[in-house]
Amino acid sequence: MIDAAFLDRLRSIVGPAGHIDAPGDMEPYVAEWRGRYRGTTPLVLRPATTRELSEVVKACWEAGVPIVPQGGNTSLVGGSIPSQDGSEVLVSLSRLNRVREIDPLNYTVTVEAGCVLQAIQEAAAEVDRLFPLSLGAEGTCQIGGNISSNAGGTMTLRYGNMRDLVLGLEVVMPDGQVWDGMRRLRKNNTGYDLKHLFIGAEGTLGIVTAAVLKLFPRPKQVETGFLAVRDPDAAIELLASLRSASGDSLSAFELMPRIAIDFALKHVAGTVDPLEESHPWYVLLEFATGSGGEAFRDTIEATLGEAMEAGLVMDAVLASSESQAKQLWFIREAIVEAQKYAGGSIKHDISIPVSCVGTFIREATEAVERTIPGARPVPFGHVGDGNIHFNVTQPEGADTESYLAQWDKLNTVVHDIVLGMDGSISAEHGIGTFKRDELKRVKSPVELELMRKVKAALDPKGLMNPGKVL
User: Fold this and answer.
1) Are 221 and 246 contacting, i.e. CB atoms less than 8 angstroms apart?
2) Which end of the chain is more exposed for a tag (fewer CB within 10 A), N or C?
3) Residue 397: partners with Cβ closer than 8 Å, 6 or more residues away
4) Do 352 and 319 belong to one domain?
5) Confidence class for position 35, pLDDT limits 50, 70, 90
6) H helix runs in 64-210, sequence order
7) Cα 254 vs. chain centroid, distance in angstroms?
């Protein structure tokens, strides 16, 4: 238990508006939104400035009290949930939510960690710029959490993941010191690039409080298409052709099986099948360019025509309006929601070389069906960057609890195939608590030792988000 007097000290640092201690009010902070993890804390702190947070962290350092940092609490791996013993204080970054500066000429925006991703997208759009990170939780997730988990999303194919979008960081270190690395530079070869230690570290090395982010020209023309493809191999061959033909203006390339479309049509109102006939596999794609007009669309249509003649594409529709484009994207979004109504789902967030996508889906599907007869694989996702959400829905009529009890067994089966292709067991969701033990199996002893040395050097007391990642 944490000493009551010490908790009063923390309350005094952040003031009446900066803390929550009523159990009911703390509930949204201590429970994962999917219900998989739930913890306990005596106090939720919501500092409004970097200085307040620095004082909180320094006090915890001196008292030996662990801290769990939290953004929008949209984690899928339990990375922002405290332990169940009540020994940790939780620090929410939600009040650190200012856009400090936007520089259209430098193509940068400087934001605090509690800024909601969608608000940053909108701030960029107001000055005719694009912040390209886009994912399903963008209306609630916070940029500090995106940075700490190295978030990906639908446009990683063209713009990269979070690591590729950060120029500078401000970080409160485990002892309360503030590292000011808020550089707005594209080139800076003055020693170690320390920001990369904290991007993807899930709050285990320090707490990100602000960031300088890259902006890009806002596209003037966007073309969205929904295609039926022969199979995943055809999709990857098509991907290569479209990137070449469009001058690499392809910003999204999402693969979906028919079972996922059927789930969405059955369980999510407003989902519409855009093609007349049913096909085994589909691709949702998006092109974005600064200019191009009819000639740009003509090029896309011609390339798709060639792909149809080659037997790669079976049918296709290009959106003729913004509303139709949104309707096509709604199908992709509905797939995520629909799976929870179809029964228990054992999930895998994996990445492999793009050229291996077809082989992986075939081998993993066969292995899953051997392991759990009747299980229904639903592989979908951002295959343009090699990221597949290889989710497996329970057999029809099966007992959900008994099925989900086989999670670890199925993870091993799928992850073994991933590792055989030199892939990753976590493409964009992170490690958190959920994949911590599996990390021991997939990382080499040298890698794990290096990670532990970094952790020990920056957080020798082990107070930053303990029990996560390592």
Assistant:
1) no
2) N
3) none
4) no
5) confident
6) 117-126, 143-148, 156-159, 162-165, 195-198
7) 15
What is the distance between the alpha carbons of residues 42 and 231, in angstroms, rounded to a whole number? 52
**408 in a domain, yes or no?**
yes
Domain around 369: 343-428
CB atoms closer than 10 angstroms to residue 1:
8
The CATH number of whichever domain residue 20 belongs to comes to 3.30.43.10
Distances (CA, A) of 91 to 24, 67, 71, 85, 342: 17, 7, 9, 17, 36
Report yes or no: 47 and 56 within 8 Å, Cβ to Cβ: yes
Query: From CA 55, how far away is CA 309, in angstroms rounded?
Result: 66
**Radius of gyration (C-alpha) of the chain in whole angstroms:** 23
- What is the rounded CA–CA span in Å between residue 120 and residue 336? 24
Q: What is the per-residue pLDDT for 128? A: 97
Q: How far is CA 50 from the centre of its chain?
A: 25
Ranges of beta strands (E only) in 305-420 are: 313-318, 345-346, 349-351, 376-380, 387-393
Q: Which pLDDT tens digit goes with each residue over 66-77?
A: 999 999 999 889
Closest Cα partner for 42 from 27, 24, 21?
A: 21
